[in-house]
Amino acid sequence: MAYLIGIDEAGYGPFLGPLCIGATYWEISDELFQEDVDLYPILEPVVTKTLKDKSRIMVGDSKLAYKPKSGLGNLERAVHSFLPTPLHTFRQWMESLAVNWPDWSAHSPWFQEFDRDIPCDFSSDKSDELRQLVVDQLPNLPVQFLGAQIWCLPAHRFNLLLDSFPTKGALLSHCSLSLAQQITDVLPTGNILIHCDKHGGRNQYSHILQQLFPEYLVEIHEESREISRYAWGPADQRVTCRFVAKGESFLPAALASMYAKYTRELSMDAFNQWWEQQIPGIKATAGYPQDAKRFLENIKESLEPLDIAMDTLWRKS
Description:
It is a single chain. By secondary structure, this protein is an alpha/beta fold. It has a single domain, classed as Nucleotidyltransferase, domain 5. It is built from 13 helices and 9 strands. The protein has helices at residues 39-42, 62-65, 73-79, 90-97, 101-104, 109-112, 124-137, 155-162, 168-184, 206-212, 251-278, 289-303, 310-313, and strands at residues 2-10, 19-28, 47-48, 57-58, 143-153, 192-197, 219-223, 227-232, 239-244. The strands form 2 sheets. Strands 5-2-1-6-9-8-7 form a 7-stranded mixed sheet, sandwiched between helices. A two-stranded parallel ribbon has the order 3-4. β1 and β2 (19-28) form a beta hairpin. The longest helix is centred in the C-terminal third of the chain and has 28 residues, at 251-278. The N and C termini lie far apart (41 Å).
């Protein structure tokens, strides 16, 4: 068997709230494994690219699935339906999927007591129905969903890591590939394809890959604006890694973006609820630059009394 790993992020641009990097990983038959493999036709009994088809699971770019005014339902159709075991609360979600979450969230007071029921905007009955669709159909297909993992980096952790990198893009690349490394370390022997979205227009990733995968020489196959491709390892354990502009067209990366976005939105709910408790009536924020500055202006006089350091609140750029 061979393996596919798709990775994408949510929250790269904001000043407030976490950077979330999602990964999904899949097992696929050796006969189907190739760089241009497309899972959409293979998984057609289960997935769709359109929000109009309610009988299957829409998997696509999280920016298409999620609009603030329409709620989290479209994301929840996907991220909950693929999980073999239902997760019913935010705490269960983070404990099950978010890497090192207790340590990385320890400095953020808005996460310490927060919890909420999930799914938020999608009925549990419908989620169970779609999960059953996955259970019934996937065993008959030559592709299996193995799991999802998320790196959720609150401001404190983000800033601590950023001090070790020259740019925010380099940080994103390192964290994304570290997540890929964690997954490859536990996969059985077989060929692996790692697919990432391009990081901030960056075209060169070989030095980061070499640091994280030092056992073999990383071969540079292509570095262009559209795609950067690399490979390493022996024939029976060959790893191919690619960074693709608009990489969400690859289903494992599209679903990864949905896991990342969903986790980011739940985390922002925790953030906004905590600040509403401290400053009743304060307008919630999504954390993006212009509104983040408005929010900071509204809370700045409360930071010292609440013992909130800027490094805990505000992500460096």
